Structure formats: C-alpha cells, structure tokens
Amino acid sequence: MVDGLFFLAVGALGWGLSLATYRAVARWNGWPLGTAQTTVPALTMTLGILSAATGLVFALARGPMHGGMVILVFGVALAIFWSGFLRVGAQSALFLAPLSAAALIIAWLARALGF
C-alpha cells in the first residue's frame, strides 16, 4: 500500500526547506538567483517556511513510531539534494512546495473527515 500523505509531507517539508534556504545558500556559493528570489525574497521565504511547517506539523502529528521521524529525515535529505544538486533547478520548488503543502492539507482533512 502506498501512503500518499507520507510522500506529500516529505515533499512539502523538503521543497519548503529548499525554497526557504536557497537564497542564503546561493549567495554563499555564488549561484544565480531566480527572478522571484531577487524581486520578492520575503514571499519566497514565506512560502517555503509555510510549506515546511505543514510537512513538519504532519510529521509531528504522526509521531516518531508511525513515520514522523522518517518524514523529517527524508524531507531534510530532499532539501539538501534539491538545493545542492539542482542549483538553479531548485527554483522549481517555488511551484512544488506550495502545491504539495496544499495537497497534504486537503488529503489530511479528507482522511480526518472520513472520505
């Protein structure tokens, strides 16, 4: 059985962390910044923090014995890979982080309501 909420939480946490930290990492390493990172850095950081917080809250709600710790580890690993390996491609987290966070919230509410 595939746990879709698990993958959405890992995505929200990983892409959110990547988005929230990319500006600092890119400046430190001399990588180019995307248009959104240069023109509205507060918005991109806010999107990243909210997305990462959504994944983190879900991981905490699950608890360490039911996959919460794995979500944290995989989310941080995804953020490191996404920012470090993809560099400018990490700007795709601008779309992926809020989408995965929104999908996680919708699916989590649907499961809680019994759908």
Order of helical and strand elements: HHHHH
Number of domains: 1
Question: Number of helix segments?
Answer: 5
Backbone structural class: mainly alpha
What profile does the largest beta sheet have?
none
Shape: elongated
> What is the share of helical residues?
over 70%
Beta-strand share of residues: under 5%
What is the CA–CA distance across the termini?
17 Å
Computed over alpha carbons, the radius of gyration is 14 Å
Chain-averaged pLDDT? 92
Q: Unreliable segments (pLDDT under 50, ≥5 consecutive)?
A: none
Number of strands: 0
Describe this structure in words.
The chain has 115 residues and is mostly helical. It has one domain. The protein has five helices and no strands. It has helices spanning 4-29, 35-39, 41-62, 68-86, 93-112.
Layout: helices, strands, pairs:
Blueprint: H1 4-29, H2 35-39, H3 41-62, H4 68-86, H5 93-112
Helix pairs in contact: 1-3, 1-4, 1-5, 3-4, 3-5
Q: Which short descriptors sum up this protein?
A:
elongated, single chain, mainly alpha, 5 helices
Give a short synopsis of this structure:
With 115 residues, the chain is an all-alpha fold. It has helices spanning 4-29, 35-39, 41-62, 68-86, 93-112. It is elongated and about 45 Å long.
